[in-house]
Design brief:
heterodimer; A: Immunoglobulin-like; two-stranded antiparallel sheet; 3 helices; B: mainly alpha; Arp2/3 complex 21 kDa subunit ARPC3; 71% helix
Chain lengths: 145, 158
């Protein structure tokens, strides 16, 4: 009888957070870092996997989730240093954003953005370079003859 | 179909570069003098095609030009696509340098394959309908093969 009583007491003190803890929320006023991810064609990287790595641990993500419809993702950095955010669309595209945080603000980032006019000039430069390669190969072939 | 930097494992990156080196080597060796300008022209078209976006319903896609490059150039598709992808990586940040080998192989191998499968039929045929049908099939097969190779590469991701 004593053994059964002891067992009952043990069962009663078994910790189960589901029974004992309530949940709540409150508004906070910490500064979040919000980033927008996009393809170089201008299309947004919507609903893609996003992982945040703190300056202290580059192996395990401190936060993971998905970008929203507009390709946006935000997090709240709690230490100074270089934070890494990796967004992957699981179809071979991955964007790695590195931002340096100091005193609650971004001091440096590897931001990439394209203007339309810049794309045009880059495209022109690319075509010109391809024809220059071709010219070089042609000259080399003639030189060997 | 560009695979980004940091997605694939180092073994796949090396295998991609190995396949691409063989293809580019063969392509440069086999290229005839009068085909060099043609190769540059198609390489430029391939380079620019990725910038042309076509909206399909809620999403969008871009032109690939894999089959035309392959059908016209044959082995020359390897150097043409390599040059185009190298410049896309430098100028537009499509893909990257480490993954350039895998990306070139993903697109140049289907190009060469459709040339070997449909090239002779298309060149010899005199009927317009036959040429159009086989060209359409070549284009579809090239895209499917490219997606399949990219899928296999991604299966072995880090």
């Amino acid at each position: 009888m004593k053994k059964i009583f002891a067992l009952l007491i043990l069962l009663c003190i078994n910790e189960n957070p589901g029974f004992a803890h309530g949940v709540g929320f409150r508004e906070i006023s910490m500064k979040a870092v919000a980033l927008e991810f996009f393809y170089s064609t201008g299309e947004k990287m919507s609903y893609c996997d996003a992982k945040v790595f703190s300056p202290n641990d580059s192996k395990f993500a401190v936060q993971s989730g998905r970008t929203d419809e507009q390709g946006r993702f935000s997090f709240i950095p709690d230490t100074e240093g270089e934070w890494k955010i990796i967004v992957n669309d699981a179809q071979g595209h991955q964007c790695e954003a590195k931002i340096k945080i100091s005193e609650d603000k971004i001091v440096e980032s590897n931001e990439i953005s394209f203007e339309n006019s810049e794309i045009f000039f880059r495209a022109l430069l690319g075509v010109s370079l391809i024809f220059n390669f071709a010219l070089l190969i042609k000259i080399k072939k003639y030189a060997y003859k | 179909m560009h695979i980004s930097e940091g997605v694939l494992s180092s073994q796949i990156l090396i295998a991609g570069y190995a396949g691409t080196c063989i293809g580019v080597g063969f392509g440069l060796k086999k290229i005839q003098d009068y085909k060099i300008v043609r190769t540059a022209l198609l390489s430029s078209a391939f380079f620019l095609a990725s910038l042309v976006n076509i909206r399909i319903g809620p999403g969008s896609t871009h032109l690939s030009f894999i089959a035309p490059v392959g059908l016209i150039l044959g082995w020359g598709a390897f150097p043409a696509i390599f040059a185009a992808l190298l410049l896309q990586a430098i100028l537009f940040h499509f893909g990257g340098f480490f993954v350039l080998g895998a990306n070139t192989f993903t697109m140049a191998f289907p190009a060469l394959a459709v040339n070997l499968i449909f090239g002779k039929i298309i060149r010899k045929s005199e009927k317009k309908f036959t040429v159009m049908t086989f060209s359409f099939l070549a284009g579809a097969l090239a895209v499917i093969m490219g997606a399949a190779i990219a899928g296999i590469f991604l299966y072995f991701h880090r």
